[in-house]
Design brief:
With 320 residues, the chain is α/β, with parallel strands linked by helices. The chain has 3 domains: 151 residues, 3-Layer(aba) Sandwich (Rossmann fold), CATH 3.40.50; 60 residues, Helicase, Ruva Protein, domain 3 (Orthogonal Bundle); 92 residues, Zinc Finger, Delta Prime, domain 3 (Up-down Bundle). It is 58% helix and 9% strand. Strands 2-3-4-1-5 form a 5-stranded parallel beta sheet. Helix 12 crosses helix 14 and helix 15 packs antiparallel against helix 16. The N and C termini lie far apart (57 Å). Bound molecules: adenosine-5'-triphosphate and magnesium ion.
């Protein structure tokens, strides 16, 4: 097995290689064609191509002079005003090299910049707009001060759709000569919910167990329960087969190593399959929130989850 991180190895180098996010990629491609790039703000959940798109756009725009005209700063290492005064200003004020119309500075995780730093940044963005365009990247745009937002074209990246991710996973599996069966793909999609980075990382981790990746390998490596197991446990609880349901709970926690917090999240996700009445469902949802809070505060996971399963059983009793 090679030691490269597949997420880096398979990061699309050009805008054309990026899967999904069609309307955003279309706009960025137009920026490259017209060589007119505004300051941009890329925002959206993790692993949805923000950094990839920024790097690909700069590569498409600059070609050979990419290294000299592009800089990426990760704002979560240095978050203070000094980074704006020194590194950012120094890069932004020098003229672009070669025939590049301007330089591009990517500020990753810009939502971690302190508010002072953000205020300093807004002056820099204006003063040096001739020589440098900025791409700010963050997960939550609400953490960026409004004057910066108003200086940027905002692009909202959404979670990638399942067909795009599964296509990519199959492509990578083929390149890496591993067999990924369809249950394996479904399991990865289920667990990663539109996060391409998480999906590729999970694929790489699963490939270390064996050449063939199935649903079983994926859930084992992720330390998660399969939706089927959760469904069985919940159905047993609802139909008052308490012993069976508690047995499944213990197996999940102690034999399969699933963390109680993750179990609560998965139960929350699967609860609608129980076909509970409206009021029962409300009551169970409330209980799930309570259990999640208690486990977060340090309560014993098995006891809390057993109580939740009992609550589901009692709920169906009362409705009879
Ligand atoms: N649209 C895509 N097509 C193909 N691969 C992708 C795509 N989006 C992401 N990836 C893969 O996922 C990895 C992570 O993507 P990226 O760094 O762009 O995420 P991000 O949106 O910047 O996430 P974060 O907010 O966590 O920084 C990339 O290295 C690449 O391998
Ligand atoms: Mg990123």
């Amino acid at each position: 097995m090679d030691l490269d991180l597949w997420t880096e190895k398979y990061r699309p180098p050009t805008l054309g290689g990026i899967i999904g996010q069609e309307s955003i990629i279309e706009s960025l491609t137009r920026f490259v064609e017209t060589k007119a790039v505004p300051h941009c703000l890329f925002t959206g959940p993790p692993g949805t191509s923000k950094t990839t798109a920024a790097m690909a756009m700069a590569k498409d725009l600059f070609g050979e002079t990419y290294n000299r005209n592009f800089m990426e700063l990760n704002a979560s290492d240095e978050r203070g005003i000094d980074v704006v005064r020194n590194q950012i200003k120094n890069f932004a004020r020098t003229m672009p090299s070669g025939d590049a119309p301007f330089k591009i500075l990517v500020l990753d995780e810009a939502d971690h910049l302190t508010s002072d730093a953000q205020h300093a940044l807004r002056r820099t963005m204006e003063s040096y707009a001739q020589s440098c365009r900025m791409i700010l990247i963050c997960n939550y745009s609400s953490r960026i001060i409004p004057p910066i937002q108003s200086r940027c074209a905002i692009f909202r990246f959404s979670r990638l759709d399942e067909s795009g991710i599964s296509k990519r996973l199959k492509y990578i599996s083929k390149k890496e000569k591993i067999t990924l069966d369809s249950s394996g793909v479904d399991a990865i999609l289920y667990l990663t919910e539109g996060d391409m980075r998480a999906a590729i990382n999970l694929l790489q981790a699963a490939s270390s167990i064996g050449e063939t990746i199935t649903e079983k390998t994926v859930y084992a490596i992720a330390g998660s329960a399969s939706p089927e197991t959760i469904k069985t446990m919940l159905t047993d609880a609802k139909e008052q087969r308490h012993l069976e349901s508690l047995e499944s709970l213990r197996t999940l926690i102690y034999n399969e190593g699933v963390s109680p917090v993750d179990l609560v999240k998965q139960i929350h996700r699967e609860i609608q399959i129980l076909d509970l009445s409206h009021s029962q469902q409300m009551s169970v949802l409330e209980q799930i929130a309570e259990v999640e809070f208690r486990i977060g505060e340090g309560a014993n996971g098995e006891i809390q989850l057993a109580a939740l399963l009992a609550h589901i059983g009692i709920g169906s009793d009362a409705s009879e």
